[in-house]
Amino acid sequence: MIYLLIFILSLAWTGSCSSIVASGDIQEAIDGAIPGDTVMVYAGDYDPFTVDKPLTIQGIGSPSACARIQEPAISIRADGVKLIGFEVVGVPRNQDDKFSYYMDQSSRKPHYALNRPNSGILVNGDDVVIEDLDLQGSEAGILVEGSRNFTVRNSSFVRCERGLLLQECRGGKIEGCSFLECEKYGAYLEGCDGITIEKNEAIENSANGMMLKESSECFISDNEFVGNWNGLFLWNSTLCEIQENRADRNSYYGMVVSSGSNNSIVNNLARNNGGGEFGLLGIGISIQENSSRNLVAGNILEENFNGLDMTRGCRFNLIFCNEFSENSNGLRLDKNENNLVYKNNFKRNLISGYDNASHNFWNATVGNYYDDYSGRDRDGDGTGDDPYWIPKGSSCAVDWRPLMQPAEKVIDPENAWEDLARYATYEPADDLPYKVENQTIMIGKKEPGKWWI
């Protein structure tokens, strides 16, 4: 009886929803619909409209909606909206027109703000899904503010200033989208948490293919960053997983983590970054500006100027099981301390390693494989008996246990973090010419390991 009642109620609810054909005026059809309805929109050119209830807006034959100054082509102001199969023509940035719009009191709408960019689509709702969208020429293609579980898939953003702009969003997915020839960013996320970004392509965007600022716990997988100024850029972001992406032929950086901690950068390909019309010396992956406790493992870094670059105050990062090949500098470390570099393979690089003004560790129980190592392994244990001196930089860094054969690509983060804690133990006080022991100042050494008062 209970199951029968549920079934009857289900049929009643289903029966209450219907499909409505918008004949010329989409807003009129939306105003007449009830939550759960589908509004069918056929090919044609349409004025801006607002969706303020949970509806499916289904485009058939790629209907086109055009934005105006400070008026999105489509405004979504409800939860549970689906928008499928539209073309959207946006409005580029124009400060003079925006100022004139806000000076005209008769046309200004109370829910628009002066600092909001011209957007093709504006989203202020949770659980919104946008699919099969073609959008071009907007200051912000889609602007999403404070939404939960926003999803956009199988859509293209062409020649916008910023293709997709997410602010303070939680959860959701960006999947199967193309970001092409945008003036600044293909996609820009600020203050976002838990966003999944996968199977997208960011190609020939003038600044960054994708930028994540002050975001956390985002999953970035299986994306392509090709021909941008920088491919993927994370700034002050934490606990993100960056895996199985490809950064190829970007003008400067393939991938960057700046002022970020506890991120995982695993199994990515960064190749042939640099050059372009400005002839820049490109970097495959860059960790910089006080970034700490990031895992960089299993990546392939080839044909860059620097394969991997780590600069300025980075500490306790783990660099292992990476393949460095045919770079000018395989790995370049500058002004860092307590980073562990081991189980990497350096092949056919002009210079395998550079360690400057730093105190890092190039081996644990084993070190790295260098194809220019000329030492011997007399006891046959697989590690060289002679140390490998890192060729460049002022740190006089040494790998005390260089591998005789390339390391296998076995990524075991748990054991690797234990190795980092065991071996990366440098304290800046170790370099001082004095120390305090039992309230006595010890000011020098007579011989190694012995101090005097």
From TrEMBL:
Recorded hits in Gene3D superfamilies, A to Z, give: Single-stranded right-handed beta-helix, Pectin lyase-like
Q: Per the record's keyword annotation, is Repeat included, yes or no?
A: yes
Its UniProt pathway annotation is: Protein modification; protein ubiquitination
Q: Where is the Periplasmic copper-binding protein NosD beta helix domain?
A: 117-270
- What are the record keywords, sorted? Repeat, Ubl conjugation pathway
Q: Which SUPFAM superfamilies match?
A: Pectin lyase-like
Task: State what protein this is by name.
Answer: Periplasmic copper-binding protein
* Native species: Methanothrix harundinacea
